[in-house]
Amino acid sequence: xxxxxxxxxxxxxxxxxxxxxxxxxxxxxxxxxxxxxxxxxxxxxxxxxxxxxxxxxxxxxxxxxxxxxxxxxxxxxxxxxxxxxxxxxxxxxxxxxxxxxxxxxxxxxxxxxxxxxxxxxxxxxxxxxxxxxxxxxxxxxxxxxxxxxxxxxxxxxxxxxxxxxxxxxxxxxxxxxxxxxxxxxxxxxxxxxxxxxxxxxxxxxxxxxxxxxxxxxxxxxxxxxxxxxxxxxxxxxxxxxxxxxxxxxxxxxxxxxxxxxxxxxxxxxxxxxxxxxxxxxxxxxxxxxxxxxxxxxxxxxxxxxxxxxxxxxxxxxxxxxxxxxxxxxxxxxxxxxxxxxxxxxxxxxxxxxxxxxxxxxxxxxxxxxxxxx
Length: 373
Fold this sequence. Notes:
An eight-stranded mixed β-sheet has the order 3-4-2-1-5-7-8-6, sandwiched between helices. The protein has a five-stranded mixed β-sheet with strand order 10-9-11-12-13. Helix 1 (25-40) packs across helix 3 and helix 6 (149-159) runs parallel beside helix 8 (214-226). It folds into two domains: 6-266, 3-Layer(aba) Sandwich (Carbamate kinase); 277-367, Archaeosine Trna-guanine Transglycosylase, Chain: A, domain 4. It has 13 helices and 13 strands. The chain is of the alpha/beta class. It comes from Alteribacter lacisalsi. Its EC number is 2.7.2.11. Residues 279-351 form the PUA domain.
């Protein structure tokens, strides 16, 4: 290899478990063999691993994967231990240690906790250990979930400044049609932009043991591409798929963003994908191009309407007067201060100039992104 990489690999439940729902040691051995090969080459590797519920529900006496939240959480409490124990044993046979990192969406939505998670993972990676990340399914409710591990893996990749995101699935890439229904469907080897047409190609989940389908993977790649992280989608059971994906010789789809908008730093990544906007503001038409195209800051006089209450430093959703979402911004004013400023501005037309001189803009950072991600 000409250079080493920091690689995030997402492994789905169907790639880890047998048809009976138990952990497939054979599948895990093939996976850890490949990760160990990457480690031997000098790469840093982080796994985002599903499989806790699938690995634990039969131990609780369920014949099929449970449907209710308490049953899933109970299954995860059993399965997570089995999963990390097997990972640790297999990595140890290669001379490497594994660590377990269980997180919730709250760890990402709070900026201090977000930075703490990054610092912890960086230490683990720098010490040569393989972090195995999963959502803490035992305590996480549906309302507070990331949604699926496809999304989680993309956010983790941005968190740790990954050089590559690899998502393994039961399909060997993105096709221009559903290959299970259309024998003429063609694999797309490279994608540089997630267009409406590509989003329309996304189908329903293809596995009974996973939670994410092609739609969730496309959303994950949108996050990774906006963060400037090249990504890959391929079939998990192809021989040496992970090693070949890092070498960029594997069969599958490679996602790369080639525009200037593909360089969100950590601050903007947090605002865009993790903050959870607390309120909304509507801006005047004249400010739309400044926010979306020029990425300029927003002045108090450009705020048309305030919807909700927020503190200084909160993140809000920004809309135009037609209700179209434009992005997210971190506020330099509370809603009360901004409202008071607007009242004072009506009496003093020069107040905006004073604000500009003091650099006390309404929005410190603007993120013009697809808000639906």
